[in-house]
Amino acid sequence: MHADYQSSILRELRDQQVRYAPREKKVEQINRAERLLDEIDPSKTYSYEYLCYRITDYRPDAAPSRTMPGAQARHDLRLFVEDVSDAADLHFDEAGEPVHTVDDLSRLFNVSTKTISRWRGQGLVGRRFLVEGRKRVGFLKSSVDRFVAKNRDRIERGEKFSQVTPEERDMIVERARRLAQTGGCPTEIARRVARQMDRSAETIRYTIKQFDDEHPDIAVFPDRLAPLREDQKERLYQQYRRGMTVEALAKKYRRTRGSIYRIVNEMRARKILELPVDYINNAEFDRPGAEQRILAERPQRESGGRKKARAPAGLPPYLASLYETPLLTGEEEQYLFRKLNFLKHRIRQLRADLDPQRARATQMDDIERYYAEAAQTKNELVQANLRLVVSIAKRHVTPSHDFFSLVSDGNISLIRAVEKFDYSRGFKFSTYASWAIMKNFARSIPDEFKHQDRFRTSLDEMFMSQPDDRSDQYEQEQAQRLREEQIHRILSRLDEREQRIIISRFGLDHQHEPLTLKEVGEDLGVTKERVRQLEARALDKLRMAAEEERLDIPE
Predict the structure, then answer these.
(1) How far apart are CA 455 and CA 120, in angstroms?
(2) How does the average pLDDT of the chain come out, rounded?
(3) CB atoms within 10 A of CB 256
(4) Which of 106, 161, 187, 444 is 20 to 30 A from 377 (CA-CA)?
(5) What tens digit of pLDDT does each residue of 197-210 get?
């Protein structure tokens, strides 16, 4: 069975039909699903209720309102046809029309079997037939005709993907090698050679790859043969996050764009698997329709309910800002805690199926969307209860203890309490949080007093009476981060060669010392004078970009 369905609800429908539907029903549903697949528009959105009815002739009880993009529906319906036909144990003679094997189509269209496999992923619908005790993929003549009618350009390109002669192969390798020496990426080089030789880019890529695999000592792209190290993958991913294009990364690391996307997805999946997801589970999370019910709109407050309190006069800005967030009603509190824990429950479920080597962007988008929504919900709960921390800190403050240190300590306890609170027990959160905060104060304050008494010196009073004129380290870090972002943006105005010159000349990568004009020229294969000209042109561009960014830089 296929495991790469993009929709869990269609995968569940597949499982249900494979296990329980009679054989004649399976055959009927295969035909209905293939007709439906031919009607699906990838640019539209379809409800699960509609898809289920078209396939099975009944309307579902579970998740009728769920929708999915047409492209996702086409992908999963193709898998549905293959999987249900596999379970039905069909024979060729039951098809009622001619059936082509993969080898048949390979000969018919003069393409490789690998191309046929690629066409299957692009919409060619296949079924699984039982032949001499073994399952083989077959394609109905009507299915092939429909695919050809909709993909004539793709078929023509595939027909050009034929075996090259030894002379053509030598010419392809030679031209690719000359272009590779100038620093081109494999994808762009394949395109240029394809145009020169009137061949498909896929043919060129395959020929070069085959040559490199057979002759690693004289490979056109020797770097591509060795997998990237973990530190290189991490660096590549960070560069991608900072805005570097896939094309630029492919050229820099001498990889194809497809491999760059795979590395980015792999690293992104690893980061997702490292996210902390602690929550309080509840049986209602696994009941049918839980997502629609729990993530429904927030309960509305009754008219004349709690309003935002007015802050007392004379409060410090931080304390005054706490009164801008109104306190939560009991219904709102239950809703937010249920939502927070359910979102984390869904994240845990989705992460269980996340494989960094085969991670899908749509799957990771869902996890990150749930995580961002959970963080927003948690922040709302914390902000609505910050006044509780202040009121408890007031009762524990002493003349020898800093009030805002107690508030800061209490805020940490409040955040932990939000993570650990079990809303299903029926208690108010303020009761649970108050005990958590006071317990922490009882544990930390005596220890801190003991520490102060033990290490008190004659200079303590002087330190306490002197103003702290030091700059805020956090503000310095924020300012430095802002400057780095501005520099990255203005550097992006340069082409890649100009970027390499500026970074090398001024040591902006923080890993190498600045290079001389001659050293940069040797690295790029140009004269020292040419490097100076390119550097002057790049600096002019940077000055203009810096003025637009309003970045204050010395002349």
Answers:
(1) 75
(2) 81
(3) 20
(4) 444
(5) 877 777 787 788 88
CA angle (153 as vertex; 161, 115 as ends), nearest 5: 35
* Long-range contacts of residues 246-251, Cβ cutoff 8 Å, at least 24 apart: 247/185, 247/187, 247/188, 248/496, 250/185, 250/186, 250/187, 250/188, 251/183, 251/184, 251/185, 251/188, 251/496
CA 309 to chain centre: 41
Task: Please name which of 54, 30, 26, 3 lies closest in space to residue 358, comparing C-alpha atoms.
Answer: 3
Residue 127, helix vs strand vs coil: strand
Sorting pLDDT into bands at 50, 70 and 90, what band is 344?
Answer: very high
Q: Give burial (CB, 10 Å; 0-12/13-18/19+) of 341.
A: buried
Looking at 295-329, list the stretches that DSSP marks H as alpha helix, in order from N- to C-terminal side: 317-322
Q: pLDDT: is 349 or 397 the higher one? A: 349
Same fold? 385-457, 478-549: no
CATH topology of domain 478-549: Arc Repressor Mutant, subunit A (1.10.10)
Handedness of CA 221, 222, 228, 232 (dihedral sign): negative
Q: Where are the alpha helices (DSSP H) in 288-422?
A: 290-294, 317-322, 330-352, 361-384, 386-396, 403-420
155-169: average pLDDT: 68
Q: Where are the domains of the chain?
A: 1-88, 385-457, 478-549
Q: Give, rounded to a whole angstrom, the gap between the first and last alpha carbons of the chain.
A: 65
Share of the chain above pLDDT 70, in %: 85
Domain 385-457: which CATH class? mainly alpha
Q: What is the pTM of this model?
A: 0.48
Element (H, E) at 100: strand 99-101
Residues forming a β-bridge with 131: 134
How many other C-beta atoms are found inside a 10 Å radius of the C-beta of residue 361? 12
Using one digit for the tens of pLDDT, what is the confidence trace for 105-141? Answer: 877 877 777 788 888 888 889 998 887 778 888 999 8
Report pLDDT digits (tens) over 258-307: 788 889 999 999 999 998 888 899 999 999 988 899 998 888 877 655 55
From CA 135, how far away is CA 108, in angstroms rounded? 22
Classified as helix, coil or strand, 438 is helix
Question: Token match 């239950």: residue?
Answer: 334
